Amino acid sequence: MANRSYVYEMQFTFTLADKIDPVAVYAALVATMVFAWNVYVWRNSGPRLNVTATMNMLVIGGGADEEKKSFLIVRGTNVGSKKTTITNVVILSYDNIWQRFRNKPTWSAVFNNQGGDYPIPYVLNVGHDFMSKADQVDLVSRIRDTYFYAGIAHSSANKPVMVRVKYTEPKQRSDAVGREKSARKHAYSPS
């Protein structure tokens, strides 16, 4: 028997017009976009809070002791698709950026919201706001000298939604409060 070796050659010809159906390509693209949209909707469903923190806020129309103070106001708005429960309002202070990166605050505190319009725990419906205030007289040095954050913890998240509080110089409040009181005094006086 003789040893015969055979070499088989296969020729491949591939043209887009013959082998790929444009309708199938269109269907695959639409299916991929629909899948991506469903993932996006799933990731963004549920409660989502937008949090802001503002310092040097004045209370007008409150008690006499409140009108003389400046407050740190923390406000949260539920912009998600489901309601959530506010469990805490926290403030954290970090001495350096490395502590912030490792989430090791040097000082932390919780706002005391026992009474008022927003007692904690507070159910926050979709599109509604939540506000909390703290007297900032003891916080000014921390806000000015450290990385200072305020945040709102809610039942649908493992970590609070935090926002950086940056120091701003207070405006002349004596003039503003004095003008507001004199305007109130002269608003109804007969001339």
Description:
With 191 residues, the chain is an alpha+beta fold. It has a domain at 47-169: Immunoglobulin-like (Sandwich). The protein is built from six helices and eight strands; from the N terminus they run ααβαββαβββαββα. The chain has helices at residues 16-19, 22-44, 64-67, 97-102, 140-145, 173-187, and strands at 49-57, 71-78, 84-94, 107-110, 122-124, 129-135, 147-154, 161-165. The strands form two sheets. Strands 3, 4, 5, 7 and 8 form a five-stranded antiparallel sheet that branches. A hairpin with a 6-residue loop joins strand 7 and strand 8 (161-165). It is elongated. Residues 182-191 have low confidence and may be disordered.
Briefly characterize the structure.
With 191 residues, the protein is of the alpha+beta class. The chain has a domain at 47-169: Sandwich (Immunoglobulin-like), CATH 2.60.40. It has 6 helices and 8 strands.
